[in-house]
Write a structure and sequence with these properties.
With about 120 residues, the protein is an all-beta fold. Helix content is about 0%, strand content about 55%. The protein has strands at about 5, 10, 20-25, 35-40, 45-50, 55-60, 65-70, 75-80, 90-100, 105-110, 115. The strands form two sheets. Strands 2, 4, 5, 6, 9, 10 and 11 form a seven-stranded mixed beta sheet that branches. A four-stranded antiparallel beta sheet has the order 1-3-8-7, with no helix packed on it. The radius of gyration is 14 Å and the shape is globular. The protein starts with a strand and ends with a strand. The mean pLDDT is about 95.
Length: about 120
């Protein structure tokens, strides 16, 4: 059974930094696009950042210049470095693994890790 386990969340003051990690197991990690989503209370889940199999990165506009997504295929890890955090970044952050080719599609989620930005 595929597992994605997030870690690194917590409470941080505005302007601070956190690094989230997502450890994947039982998955051919290198063929998956890896993403971070977040969901704040009362809001829909949104895509924050994604990194494809060839290393192409995409970010939602609100985090560009502040967040960096990276991956380590050998260790089956994906990271989200979050700098200059703002209160509006407060949310549960979820790791996602997605693969699609022709009619085959796989989509996996972690359990989420809470990030709270508050003074």
């Amino acid at each position: 059974q595929v597992q994605l386990v997030e870690s690194g969340g917590g409470l941080v003051q505005p302007g601070g930094s956190l690094r989230l990690s997502c450890a994947a197991s039982r998955i051919a990690f290198s063929i998956y696009t890896m993403s971070w989503y977040r969901q704040a209370p009362g809001k829909q889940r949104e895509l924050v950042a994604a990194i494809t199999t060839d290393g192409t990165r995409n970010y939602v506009d609100s985090v560009k210049g502040r967040f960096t997504i990276s991956r380590d295929n050998a260790k089956k890890l994906v990271y989200l470095q979050m700098n200059s955090l703002k209160p509006e970044d407060t949310a549960v952050y979820y790791c996602n693994a997605h693969f699609q080719e022709s009619w085959t599609e796989y989509d996996y989620w972690g359990q989420g890790t809470q990030v709270t930005v508050s003074s």
